[in-house]
Amino acid sequence: MDLNDIRGLTDAINGELRLFFERESAYLSDIGSELEPVADSIGHFLLDSGKRLRPLFAAIGYLGVGGGITPQAIKALSSLELVHVCALMHDDVMDASDTRRGAPSIHKQFEELHRTNNLHGSSAQFGVASAILLGDLALIWSAKMLHESGLASDQILQSLPIYDEMRVELMAGQYLDVYEQALASESLERSLKVARYKSGKYSIERPLHFGATLAPKYSQEQLNVYSRYGLPLGEAFQLRDDVIGVFGDPAITGKPAGDDLREGKRTVLIAITSSEVNSSQRNEFAKYFGQNDLDLRGVEKLRQIIVDTGALKRVETLIEEMTSNARNALNNDGIAPQAKTLLEEMITAATKRSS
Amino acid sequence: MDLNDIRGLTDAINGELRLFFERESAYLSDIGSELEPVADSIGHFLLDSGKRLRPLFAAIGYLGVGGGITPQAIKALSSLELVHVCALMHDDVMDASDTRRGAPSIHKQFEELHRTNNLHGSSAQFGVASAILLGDLALIWSAKMLHESGLASDQILQSLPIYDEMRVELMAGQYLDVYEQALASESLERSLKVARYKSGKYSIERPLHFGATLAPKYSQEQLNVYSRYGLPLGEAFQLRDDVIGVFGDPAITGKPAGDDLREGKRTVLIAITSSEVNSSQRNEFAKYFGQNDLDLRGVEKLRQIIVDTGALKRVETLIEEMTSNARNALNNDGIAPQAKTLLEEMITAATKRSS
User: Fold this and answer.
1) pTM, 2 dp
2) For the segment A253-284, what is each residue's pLDDT rounded down to a tens digit?
3) Which of A308, B115, B158, B189 gets the most CB atoms within 10 Å of its CB?
4) ipTM score
5) B112 CA to chain A: closest CA distance, Å?
6) What residue of A is the nearest CA neighbor of B110?
């Protein structure tokens, strides 16, 4: 296994996640066989897919300040993936999303378990309760995985302030997003702020910082380089997400075509569209956007408006500018060369993807 | 402030919780004023009431192995209250409970905020999303409070395995409870198992262990004494909860009379009743138990059956036996005398309460 490339690091991260999951899953089964579906669902969610973006950035952040890759380090770095599992599970309950990565979301799986076993009470309520608890458990497992990683105590302790702040920012960003959707705001400034909190910091900058603080030694200047790289790239990452939510191919995304349009999700892409529509486009847009039963024809109409107003093009330009800012931040001697190469590669992974 | 009695310890715990909350609340406001309702709601939930049972047991566990009370220690020990805040907030969403401590539960508060501000989308969905995020934030704040308490690093590190295991057990116990309700099981053995996981370990044994591991030094024998005391007392605590859920005074509990009967909650009390009813009682019981619109007359009928079958009496006897087992565990020289006195007092607080 070559730990100097993305593939090798991803394999190592997957290996540690699997080992950790297997131990915790056995622990749950020992409490009671009723907990086996809980473990199974988390296991599939965690291990069947996922790009490991946050653990990868953490690993590169760690390498960039001179950290040596060991199984203990990989275990500690991989713990971020379980924070993300919590965020996604809870997100699906909050959005009432029925699918995730092409499969039923967790609350839907447990709704089905309730129905199949003819259990008492509301199946939907049982599904929601289970998904909340599974998300909570994933969040707690993340901390457990970090704490028991076997890295030197000093390194673990020194990572905790960033680890905690990242998680607070994540939940604050999630609330801002939920609130923003409820405001149905068309403000570009506001939607950029949500993108910054929800993804700019959480997806890239904080994982890089977390990785750096897990290494024996790092400097404030190194953290600053990671911020200058991570913040714009994180926002570009979120903008790419927004584009995929509207134009993505269901076969690749695992979500229905135009899902974000059906949900009426307020994104930077939509804010720009709203500011550029003429009056007939505005009426047409209002007619379809956020309709629960939006069909492919409606999706196509909305996509056309987004293209015609130039909003898609402007978002692509924004992504390019942010990406270029991220790239420029790497012109710095403070980060190990090997890590700089990986950070270059990750720019492509974060912004040129289609799912 | 006298830190040698329950009152003094409670005041010190409340003081640290308030200080921590004020800092974190200011941090959220700095991100955006939209987060002020989030901070306010957590603040009221955390600070307006609560018996601080878990931090108190943790503090006594710490004292009992020779830990010296300092503000740093109180801060670390108090962090448990925020785990409990998460559990209660998420519990109310999972049970769809509309009130908590006589006030609207968190999801209801945010449902109302959504309605008052004429926000877009479903008010109920906004309420649920907010309550999930507030609970997540409380769980993360707990860890942050512990990590930044200022206790010696070795002491914090040595508490983390128990801290994590306690939280895993809590979520596992919550799922067992939800599942048990959905099974509508009448098994005494099963409901005792749920009581053990949900409360026996989480409410008393684990907080005592957590406190002990936060002290500079503790022995396995001391942890064992805490288990022999904490497990039966925790189960007695849960049985008292079950009795209050059926017979409690709404003016004291802040919940409607007979709320657990309306919810159809499967508890040890109900399991014993089910095993002792004659056939006419069984029909009568089935007619009222778990009815959403159960009125006071129906509550009275169910209470009468629970009394007539001798189930209430048997639960009170169980509480006494468990309490006496807990008391016997204190005949041990390994625990500091001052802590033993406090543990005696806590027996009363846990089992003779009416809310």
Assistant:
1) 0.94
2) 888 889 899 988 889 999 999 999 999 999 99
3) B158
4) 0.94
5) 13
6) A179
